[in-house]
Write a structure and sequence with these properties.
The protein has 11 helices and 23 strands. The protein has 3 domains: about 270 residues, FAD/NAD(P)-binding domain (3-Layer(bba) Sandwich), CATH 3.50.50.60; about 90 residues, Alpha-Beta Plaits; about 80 residues, Glutaredoxin (3-Layer(aba) Sandwich). It is an alpha+beta fold and about 475 residues long. Helix 1 packs parallel to helix 4 and helix 1 packs parallel to helix 7.
Length: about 475
């Protein structure tokens, strides 16, 4: 089979990337070694920036129909009892949205299937070869390959790409369970994440309801050896943790899905190896604290997708494809940094003096400026690439066709020149790559040029001519 882009991995990163490439008219094939999607709940919600990115493509509203019941709560840092407030970042989605990762994946996959994108499940890649003209994965060849195949990436190993970082010091179990009976200590309603944390009987535990009678349990032993990562999780382990933390009244009903994870933090040094790119967990792994993994992967996909499409289409300016690494590597490095810090703050094995540090950090989070800083970092709303402006706020606008919003003008996946004054501008040379919309806003803002991933690259206050910037980003 011949295609333009081979995407390996049908998680949220790979599926979102395939969607971006399809939107750009690029033939794409998705390979996934698993025959069926995992039933495990995994990430329980979407960060505000992920919600914004999905809104840019018109996918958020239908996804909201798949959200979990219960009110939304602010995010958290290290499980500290202060809600992170994203409202100062001027987002329409100031709270993490309770949309499980599995539902996002199913939504994206069904959307791709409806568009005719080949989804080859049960397809394990055992060899990768590349040269100056293309890349081959088994019997499938293409111009480029993107490895979105997780933290244990087969593609990364086949190519011998180093994955430097720190090994895990702590192992934990995440399990989807039902309860045959429960004590008063078991939460029954949605709460802020900090209210789910418990330490007792030699275990650190998080237990919270998902939907119906299903619960998610995360636990680790405070001392002693834990089984190796590849050892199946036994029901007896789960019973032991439930008994220690929630008492004898809490009994396991059914262990539906379970897996192990660690606090390892690793990142590839380069996001590109010839014609192969790395995205999502194939490029970076970290402690899954604060729900940042899906956010990172989705933004990797949207950053790379339009650049890869431009390159295949033949209009990409010099260096555009390499800017994927330049822009995204520091963002993930920062997430690895903050998750390691959270692991220290939340580690029950640490010296008792750590409690005083937690108390001081909690007080800091109650300060508006400190809360804004951490909320922007955890949500991805503060991401700003070198030489670019910030993300474009989803303003209400009025056009000749009536009221709209910035996000609704970007469903095409193209750039957007948003003219908010009466200055005439011609972008005929870029009309196949950039949409030009004249609008009015109640806010006093400049005319802006926005990249397909939602970041401002020029405004009318910029001393550079618009044509120079259009050429820089759109060929």
């Amino acid at each position: 089979m011949r295609t333009e882009v081979i995407v390996v991995g049908a998680g949220p990163t790979g599926l979102m990337l395939a969607h971006e490439l399809t939107l750009a008219g690029i033939p794409t094939v998705v390979l996934e070694r698993q025959h069926t999607r995992s039933a495990q709940s995994r990430a329980r919600g979407l960060q505000p920036r992920t919600a914004e990115v999905l809104d840019l493509r018109g996918m958020l509203d239908p996804l909201l129909d798949h959200s979990l019941p219960g009110r939304e709560f602010g995010g958290h840092f290290a499980g500290l009892p202060v809600e992170l407030d994203c409202q100062p970042w001027r987002t329409r989605h100031p709270y993490p949205l309770p949309i499980p990762q599995g539902r996002l994946e199913d939504f994206l996959e069904q959307r791709l299937i409806a568009q005719g994108v080949p989804m080859l499940r049960g397809h394990e890649v055992s060899a990768v070869e590349q040269d100056a003209d293309g890349v081959t994965a088994g019997d499938i060849s293409g111009s480029y390959l993107v490895a979105c195949d997780g933290g244990h990436s087969t593609i990364r190993k086949l190519l011998g790409v180093p994955f430097p970082g720190t090994a895990g010091n702590t192992r934990a179990v995440v399990a989807d369970i039902t309860l045959a009976s429960q004590s008063a200590a078991v939460p029954t309603t949605s709460q802020h994440f900090s209210q789910y944390l418990n330490t007792a009987g030699g275990f650190s535990s998080i237990l919270h309801p998902i939907e119906g009678d299903l619960y998610r349990l995360v636990f680790s032993k405070i001392s002693g050896e834990s089984p190796a990562r590849d050892v199946p999780v036994a029901a007896e382990e789960v019973r032991e943790a439930l008994l220690a933390v929630y008492g004898p009244e809490t009994e396991l009903g059914e262990l539906r899905e379970a897996s192990r994870f660690s606090d390892a933090a690793r990142q590839v040094s380069r996001y590109r190896d010839g014609r192969v790119f790395f995205a999502g967990d194939a490029a970076h792994i970290h402690l899954p604290f604060g729900g940042q993994g899906v956010n990172l992967g989705i933004q990797d996909a949207v950053n790379l997708g339009w650049k890869l499409g431009a390159t295949i289409r033949g209009w990409a300016p010099g260096g555009l494809l390499d800017s994927y690494h330049t822009e995204r590597h520091p963002v993930a490095a920062r997430v690895l940094h903050n998750t390691r810090a959270q692991g220290v703050l939340n580690n029950p094995r640490q010296d008792p003096d750590l409690a005083t540090v937690r108390d001081m950090f909690t007080d800091l989070l109650r300060l508006p400026e400190a809360n804004r800083f951490i909320s922007g970092m955890m949500s991805g709303l503060d991401v700003r690439y070198p030489g670019l402006g910030p993300r474009m706020i989803d303003l209400d606008l009025t056009t000749l066709d009536g009221p709209t919003r910035v996000s609704r003008l970007m469903h095409s996946g193209r750039g957007l020149l948003l003219s908010l004054d009466d200055t005439p501008r011609s972008i005929d040379r870029w009309a196949d790559r950039v949409d030009h919309v004249t609008a009015k806003s109640d806010e006093d803002i400049d005319t802006v040029l926005i990249r397909p991933d939602g970041y401002i690259v020029w405004s009318s206050a910029d001393p550079q001519p618009l044509e120079t910037v259009l050429t820089q980003w759109f060929g």
